[in-house]
C-alpha cells in the first residue's frame, strides 16, 4: 500500500456485454448507495436508451415514420397535445410548478433533491414510474421530474397521476 493512500474494499463490479455477447450494454453490481449515486451522476445511464437489436430499432423507426406520415399520426399528435395540456393544467391547479408549452415532455419542477426523491418513491408506490433529475444532472435548485405524455396514455391515466400527486402535496 502506498503511503497515505487508504485501502478500500471493492465497491462495485462492472462489465460490458460487447465482447462476450456482441451486444451493446453492461451492468454494475454494487451497494444500493453506489447504485443510487450512479443513477444520479452517470451520463451514460441517464441519457441512454434500453438495449435493442439494430433490426428492431430500424423496424420501429420505419413504423413510426409510417404512422406520423398519415391521418392516424395527426390524430395521435392531437391526442398527445390534449393530454399534455390536461397534465399541465392539473399540475398548476394542484399547486405544482411546471413550464408552459405544448410539447409532450412536462417538467415537474420540485427544486429540492430530497423532495424529488420522496416524490419519485411515492409515485412508484402508487404504480407510477418516474425518474427524478437531481444535481449534478440539473443545476442545484432545478431538481425536477420529467413527465412524458405518450399516445398510449388516456385522460384517466393523467387523472390517476394527478390524484397521486395531490395526495403527496398534502
Ordered list of secondary-structure elements with their pairings:
Blueprint: E1 12-16, H1 18-21, E2 26-30, H2 32-41, H3 43-46, H4 54-68, H5 71-93, E3 105-109, H6 113-125, E4 132-133, E5 144-148, H7 155-169
Antiparallel strand pairs: 1-2, 3-5, 4-5
Structure notes:
- The structure is a single chain.
- The protein is of the alpha+beta class and 170 residues long.
- It has two domains: 12-51, no CATH class; 79-169, Aspartate Aminotransferase, domain 1, CATH 3.90.1150.
- Helices cover 49% and strands 13% of the residues.
- The chain has seven helices and five strands, in the order E-H-E-H-H-H-H-E-H-E-E-H.
- It has helices at residues 18-21, 32-41, 43-46, 54-68, 71-93, 113-125, 155-169, and strands at residues 12-16, 26-30, 105-109, 132-133, 144-148.
- The protein has a three-stranded antiparallel beta sheet. It has a two-stranded antiparallel ribbon with strand order 1-2.
- The longest helix has 23 residues, at 71-93.
- It is flat and about 55 Å long.
- The chain starts with 11 loop residues before the first strand and ends with a helix.
- The relative contact order is 0.11.
- The mean pLDDT is 83.
Largest sheet: 3 strands, antiparallel
* The first-level CATH class name of the largest domain: Alpha Beta
Low-confidence region ranges: none
Structural class call reads alpha+beta
Q: How many distinct folded domains?
A: 2
CATH superfamily of the largest domain: Aspartate Aminotransferase, domain 1
Question: How many strand units?
Answer: 5
Helix segment count? 7
Average pLDDT value? 83
Gap from first CA to last CA: 54 Å
Radius of gyration: 20 Å
Amino acid at each position: 500500500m502506498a503511503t497515505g493512500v487508504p485501502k478500500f474494499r471493492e465497491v462495485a463490479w462492472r462489465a460490458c456485454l460487447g465482447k462476450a455477447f456482441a451486444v451493446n450494454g453492461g451492468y454494475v453490481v454494487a451497494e444500493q448507495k453506489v447504485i443510487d449515486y450512479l443513477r444520479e451522476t452517470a451520463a451514460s445511464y441517464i441519457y441512454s436508451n434500453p438495449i435493442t437489436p439494430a433490426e428492431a430499432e430500424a423496424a420501429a423507426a420505419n413504423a413510426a415514420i409510417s404512422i406520423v406520415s398519415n391521418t392516424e399520426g395527426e390524430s395521435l399528435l392531437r391526442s398527445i397535445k390534449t393530454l399534455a395540456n390536461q397534465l399541465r393544467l392539473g399540475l398548476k391547479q394542484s399547486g405544482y410548478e411546471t413550464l408552459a408549452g405544448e410539447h409532450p415532455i412536462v417538467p415537474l419542477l420540485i427544486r429540492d433533491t430530497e423532495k424529488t426523491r420522496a416524490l419519485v418513491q411515492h409515485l412508484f408506490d402508487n404504480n407510477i414510474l418516474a425518474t427524478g433529475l437531481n444535481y449534478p444532472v440539473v443545476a442545484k435548485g432545478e431538481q425536477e421530474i420529467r413527465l412524458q405524455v405518450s399516445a398510449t396514455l388516456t385522460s384517466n391515466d393523467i387523472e390517476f397521476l394527478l390524484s397521486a400527486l395531490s395526495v403527496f402535496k398534502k
